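To: structure subgroup
Subject: Chain for Friday's discussion

All,

I'm putting the inputs and outputs inline so they're searchable in the archive.
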Amino acid sequence: MSGMEGPLDEEQICAMMAMEPIERNGSFVISHGKVRLFLDRLGMWVIETMQELELVLESDEISHLCTGVGKLFVTAADGINKIAALHNKNDAVLPPVLPCELAAIDMRQFVTIIHVNIKYLLASEDSTR
C-alpha cells in the first residue's frame, strides 16, 4: 500500500499539514514519510539505491525525490476521483474503484488502474489547465 489517504476534507488536510510535510492534490494526501516507507517496501534494489543516493545527495534532494513520488500518487488518485465523479454525473459505468478505495489499494492495482484510464487522466489534466 502507498500510505496515501483520501478523500479528506479541508480540515483533515490542514491537520496533517501541521504535523508533517505532505503532498496534496484535491482531497488526497500522502506524507513524505509514507512515501519513503512505500519506496522501502519495493525491495532490496530500491533500498540499496536509496542508501547509495543518501551518500551522494543532499537531504533536500532526497526530499525532492519523495515529493515527486508523492505528487505522482495524489495526482493520479485525484484524476481517477474526477473520472468517477464525471461518470457518476453521466450515469456511466464507474471505474473499478471508488475514491476512498484508491488510498487503500496496493501499488500493482494502482498502476493497472492508471494504465486502463490513462486517456481519461490525460484529458482530465488538460481540462484543468
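Points worth raising on Friday:
The radius of gyration is 16 Å.
Residues 10-127 form one domain.

D.
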